[in-house]
Amino acid sequence: MTPQESAYRAAIAHADAQRARLKESAQAAKARIAPARLKQDAKDKVSATALDGVAYVGAKVQQRPIAVAAAAGGLGLFLARRPIGALLCRLYVRFRDRDIDPQNIDNSETDDG
Known about the structure:
Protein name: DUF3618 domain-containing protein
Organism: Sphingobium naphthae
Number of helices: 4
């Protein structure tokens, strides 16, 4: 075999090896962009981010418990503002009606005129 033939055969073997590597790489890329794989990667990323966020919030709560309690209380009062307002209105009317003397009530609604 001449040196040219051996160089040619080596080049063909190298080209076949490169072709095999390209085919393998294309199959790996195809597997990476499969919808199921992308969906699983997105789920993993979201869950990891959520767990990191929970850990961060937990650390901040341990550092500043009074501030967190005050913020949570303020948020709770904000969310319950209508029921609290209705309760205070009912209590105000009840206390105001108790202070009114029944003897001095103007019965204009029951009068004929």
